[in-house]
Design a protein that fits this description.
- By secondary structure, this protein is α/β, with parallel strands linked by helices.
- The chain has a single domain, classed as Uracil-DNA Glycosylase, subunit E.
- It has a six-stranded mixed sheet with strand order 1-3-2-4-6-5.
- The longest helix has 17 residues.
Length: 230
């Protein structure tokens, strides 16, 4: 890991300026310029996305990457897309969010005891980051986790988010395991002082098919709050 930034604000500013992955730089700009008809009048963010939330958070949620017409448009991860609608409803019900939806960076959403971020910071083609792109972004996740001083629970959303959590925490020396934890929905692992939880990602691929229901996602948020308060 590079020398960590002195604050979350400094790290967030660094993330927004990143151009480490030429494929992702080209794709996020292409999407921002071409847009889609329903958002044709909007100005897209079209840059990497830092995490956001409570700097005193005890729970951190890690997704895969920004959606092309969600976070890549609005400038905030999980904001303005269907995955975010599911996620913020669940966070609101457990008291982590002050409102049940988020449509823009300036919609008044505030998170309490919760921080939301992603393994990869730019929208990838077909929503499939390459291995090298995960590696290029890992130090950003590590720095976020280092700067969030009160973490008790980290939730990996989807198998890739879960894997990114394990890799980052292990590389930092924050958790140690002899056998790598296996991803599954609602799995819970106590690794040192940190609980690592898994959840199916609230993507349309999962929610439209019924693989993930709202109650299933809510179960994970309840577990996160319960472990946070232990």
């Amino acid at each position: 890991m590079k020398n960590p930034r002195p604050s979350l604000n400094a790290l967030q500013a660094e993330i927004v300026q990143c151009r480490a992955c030429p494929r992702l730089v080209a794709w996020r700009k292409k999407v921002a310029n071409e847009k889609v008809r329903r958002f044709a009048d909007e100005t897209y963010w079209g840059k990497p996305l830092p995490g956001f939330g409570d700097a005193q958070a005890r729970v951190v949620l890690v997704g895969l990457a920004p959606a092309a017409h969600g976070g890549n448009r609005t400038g905030r991860v999980f904001t303005g897309d269907e995955s975010g609608r599911w996620l913020f409803r669940a966070l609101y019900r457990e008291g982590f969010a002050n409102q049940p939806e988020s449509v823009s960076r300036n919609d008044g959403l505030r998170l309490t005891n919760c921080y939301v971020t992603a393994a990869v910071r730019c929208a990838p083609p077909q929503n499939k980051p390459l291995t090298e792109e995960f590696r290029n972004c890992q130090h950003f996740l590590e720095e976020e986790l280092l700067l969030l001083k009160h973490i008790r629970v980290v939730v990996g959303l989807g198998a890739k988010g879960f894997a990114a959590v394990l890799s980052a925490l292990q590389h930092m020396g924050m958790i140690i395991f002899s056998r790598r934890p296996v991803f599954g929905h609602k799995v819970e692992y106590k690794l040192g002082d940190i609980w690592v939880l898994g959840s199916y990602h609230p993507s349309q691929q999962n929610t439209f098919t019924g693989k993930l229901t709202e109650e299933m996602l809510q179960d994970v948020m309840r577990a996160a709050r319960r472990r946070m308060e232990e």
